[in-house]
Amino acid sequence: MLSARESEGSQFGVAADLDNVNDNIGKRLDETLRQRRHAKDGDYNIEVLLGVDDSVVRFHGKEHVQNYLLTLMNIVNEIYHDKSLGAHVNVVLVRMIMLGYAKSISLIERGNPSRSLENVCRWANSQQKANPNHSEHHDHAIFLTRQDFGPAGMQGYAPVTGMCHPVRSCTLNHEDGFSSAFVVAHETGHVLGMEHDGQGNRCGDETSMGSVMAPLVQAAFHRFHWSRCSGQELKRYLHSYDCLLDDPFEHDWPKLPELPGINYSMDEQCRFDFGVGYKMCTAFRTFDPCKQLWCSHPDNPFFCKTKKGPPLDGTECGPGKWCYQGHCLWKTSEQLRLDGNWGSWSKLGSCSRTCGSGVRFRTRQCNNPVPANGGQDCPGVNYEYQLCNKEDCPRRFEDFRAQQCQQRNSYYEYQRTKHHWLPYEHPDSIKRCHLYCQSKEMGGVVYMKQLVHDGTRCSYKDPYSICVRGECVKVGCDKEIGSNKVDDKCGVCGGDNSHCRTVKGTFTRTPKKSGYLKMFDIPSGSRHVFIQEDEVSPHILAVKNQATGHYILNGKGDKSKTKVFIELGIEWAYTLEDDIETLHTDGPLHDPVVVLIIPRNNSTKSTLTYNYIIHEDSLPTISNNNVLQEDVHAFEWALKSWSQCSKPCDGGFQYTKYGCRRKTDNKMVHRNYCDADKKPKSIRRMCNLQECTLPVWTAEEWEHCTKSCGSSGYQIRTVRCVQMLTDGRNRSVHSKYCTGEHLENRQACNRKPCPAQWKTGPWLECSVTCGEGIEQRQVRCRPSDQCDGEKPEATRVCKRPPCGDGPCVRDKSIFCQMEVLARYCSIPGYNKLCCESCSKRSSTLPPPFFAGAAEMEDAMAEADHEMTPTHQPDSTSRSRGPQANRLARAKNNKPSAVTPGRGKTKGVNSSQKKTPAAGRPYRVEASHNQLHLIQSNPIAISNSSTATHSSDRAAKTPERHAAL
Questions:
Q1: Which of 165, 606, 775, 805 sits a CA distance of 20 to 30 A from 202?
Q2: In which residues is Zn(2+) bound (predicted)?
């Protein structure tokens, strides 16, 4: 699977002062010691920027293009994991950029591959992250387009040996289906230094076997390998590509199924290969739909095309069956089990609040695919959220929970009576995100049977944490989810109370008349407010909001009992004990309040003591109060710590780090409190004087064997070159530092014969097109002839619709009389077109579906081979990608196509009397009740050392390029 960097490291640089130098030394050491995450020693990681132009995005659709591209890059990664390469190369996707229309057409110049590649490479370099430790810093750029950037049939273009170069480590690739993965792997191979097989080397004999670097790529999903020359050429240059030596970081790409075809039907793969409207060809039944993917368009269903490759492994080929390595196989119960996977994220929704910190969501569904047959559900959550509109509301503070309760005043009845509903915080923390309201008239608490709105504060004791879908989410004073930052005593986020001031006083008044008597004001922003009567008094304490005039305690002459209540968006605690009143709140006050008394005896004085904490910036607004001005804090520079040693061993240096300390409590505070001119000079000392230990090979436990029996089982283990550090930690170093024999990381296991089992193939087509016939399948005992149990049936009766067609009158094509086409009489569609000729030959031809199963397989294989055009070298034209069949051109310059014939034909390429164009390959096309012979032009093989190979090519560039 793909992997990517997960975080951004530190960049070492020259600092202005010694403290910064010390910090950077520590960061550099941390960077040196960072642990490998996924890469094994000896692995090379090509960290890729994938650029995709607008033509690709529009073709696949914005909702589906990312998963398609991830699948494509996974296939590229698996191609480089093939053991024939002889090196451990990982293709690591670190970034994906989808371009808009205007940018796309500015990069690709039709018919000018050299200029197009130059534009793409420059664009990729402009996207490079300056910091090499950035999670999106790339080593190589891969650009995909569906635009034609070169002559007809050109599939790829790349500089040779350009890897790690700022503007030459890039490839330009034509995307037309999953087989494009071989084009991408081929072009990236050129950038790594590989040449075409058979051109300048002796590996031409491997091209027909599916070598990736063949001039004409014939590799397919079930048959590909790297030639011995590719491996040798890679090793020649690989050690010089330093950018491939760093470890990859994790990246949060969507998880994909192990077999890529699970998510893509044959119809979808046909659309990718040949364009909109193409689906799996159903004109003629094939023995095994997984052997080759044949496609046709509904406008001409008998005109079938193929890229001569199978569908992806995992593609459904029948109920309970899927394709695997070119064969349609039954799924086992474990394989039928389909684990769910997440679809793409939706766009972020609207914010739940317009101000004061709301929440917005994005969601995803477990439908890619939906879990089936006992498969596991998708792990994790189906939604994500983020804070939004964090700024404070510009108008007067409003309690969001209180608003939700007030909305029920007009309609919600309790005990058959309407109430004025006040906010209520449930004492059980689990229920604080459920809406509870308290009746102002009766004091009763009622559950409103719903959750509070997203963005509502969980508790009046915490002004920042909020409710999200019924759960309390911790939010710091910096308004970041999960933050542990808190306000100090006067509301400074992350502060140390150094800006806080305590205001304390005692106020005495004797009432002279009835009515409310003002005592003093408490300003907005005050915290930890405490008000208390000094002595027993008959008067009643009252408090009102100065901004609105609304009484929050003992309005209208009321006399409250001890209670905890919510007002002004904060929690208050009022106690009446032994006729002495006390009022307390942690605040902060969003509006100023007025403290009053309600006289009960005009001759008795009332004395109130108060104190609160406020920020020093608010002191000028306070009058007639006693401010406790603490002594000015004295600060001093103190040794804080030593920097990390610059070396883990063999002697390094470390430096003193000084911090600012408050003398009164020895607490470290911000450096701005200390005089910078009095800061001591840093002291340097030696550290880690012990000798470095020699790195040694270490091995982890062997993993489980890949097979339980047979001749191909193996198991692997991780082998690393490790150096022991003095603190007991280990660090992975490059394998070149380890001496001695490299430990084995792979060994054979469970190499024993598997028990014999009956193996059955798919049922072949019925021997008749109407009426009653017979169908057969292959039944074999594998791996020996000693199977237990009854042999499954190999023949059964099949029934087709009654034969109602009239008698055959005549052939519907002049080509029906060609003897070379007699083998197609076994195909129902052809038999109907050429009924007269086929009936004449029926006495001499063997029954088409009664031959032995092994002979059928051989015939199928030979038919596939013989229907492939013979390609001769031509230095003036381009080599083609895996789309060889589709890109072959006829004289009328239209794409050639074939019908998926089966059975063996002799002399197709040699008969000069029977074929319209002797000496050249041809193909058979059945279309609209007509037969056509289409002559195929040879597909030429390109020269790997130049950008273009035709006589009319553009001016050559100094660098070497390779075209495909």
A1: 165
A2: 186, 190, 196
The verdict on whether residue 47 carries a ligand-binding annotation is yes
State whether 513 and 622 are in the same domain: yes
Nearby residues of 355 by Cβ (< 8 Å), 6 or more positions away? 389, 391, 392, 393, 394
**Residue positions annotated with a catalytic role:** 187
| 322-331, 392-401, 606-615: least confidently modelled range | 392-401
pLDDT at 852 exceeding the cut of 50: no
Give the number of domains in the chain.
5
Domain final residue pick, 289, 306, 336: 336
645 annotated to a ligand binding site: no
Q: Which residues pair with 97 in a beta bridge?
A: 51
Q: Which amino acid is at 147?
A: Q
Q: Which residues contact residue 716 at a Cβ distance below 8 angstroms, ignoring those fewer than 6 apart?
A: 702, 703, 745, 746
Pick the residue with more confidence: 116 or 635?
116
- Residues 71-75: what's their mean pLDDT? 95
- Cα–Cα separations (whole angstroms), residue 134 to 41, 125, 158, 724: 22, 15, 26, 28
Residue 92's DSSP bridge partners are: 47
**What is the C-alpha separation between 811 and 926, in angstroms, rounded?**
13
Do 878 and 942 form a contact (C-beta atoms < 8 A)? yes
**In this predicted model, what pLDDT tens digit does every residue of 215-228 receive, in sequence order?**
987 888 888 999 99
| Mean pLDDT for the chain overall | 79
> What are residue 87's phi and psi, to 5 degrees?
-150, 155
> Please, what's the b/e burial string for 39-61 (b: 16 or more CB within 10 A of its CB; e: otherwise)?
bbbebbbbbbbbbbbbbbbebbe
pLDDT one-digit tens code per residue, 77-111: 999 999 999 999 999 999 999 999 999 999 999 88
* Same domain, residue pair 530 and 612: yes
Q: Which residue has the higher pLDDT, 708 or 410?
A: 708
Q: What is the mean pLDDT of residues 152-168?
A: 90
Per residue in 882-923, pLDDT (tens digit) is 333 332 222 333 333 444 333 333 333 333 333 333 333 333
Q: Are residues 512 and 620 in the same domain?
A: yes
Whether residue 731 lies inside any domain: the answer is yes
Mean pLDDT confidence for 222-246? 91
Do residue 708 and residue 665 come from a single domain? Answer: no
Helices (H), 156-224: 180-191
246 known ligand binder:
yes
Residue closest to 945 by CA, chosen among 882, 887, 879 = 879
- Phi, psi of 78, rounded to the nearest 5 degrees: -70, -35
CA distances from 38 to 74, 90, 96, 463 (A): 16, 10, 21, 42
Q: Is 315 exposed, middle or buried (0-12, 13-18, 19+ CB in 10 A)?
A: buried
Question: Which positions ≥6 away from 16 have C-beta within 8 Å?
Answer: none
Distance CA 421, CA 679 (A): 60
Q: Among 60, 57, 126, which residue's Cα sits nearest to residue 98?
A: 57
Instruction: Say yes or no: 622 and 567 in one domain.
Output: yes
Kindly state whether residues 595 and 658 are assigned to the same domain: no
The parent domain of residue 270 ranges over 260-336
Is 196 assigned to a binding site? yes
545 inside domain: yes
Whether 526 is in a domain gets the answer yes
In angstroms, rounded to a whole number, what is the distance separating the alpha carbons of residues 18 and 653?
Answer: 13
Q: How far apart are CA 311 and CA 299, in angstroms?
A: 23
Last residue in a domain, options 290, 313, 336: 336
708 and 744 part of one domain: yes
- Classify strands 696-699 and 719-724 as parallel, antiparallel or unpaired: antiparallel
Query: Rounded distance, CA 454 to CA 24, Å?
Result: 43
8 Å CB contact between 610 and 594: no
Tell me: do 527 and 575 sit in the same domain.
Answer: yes
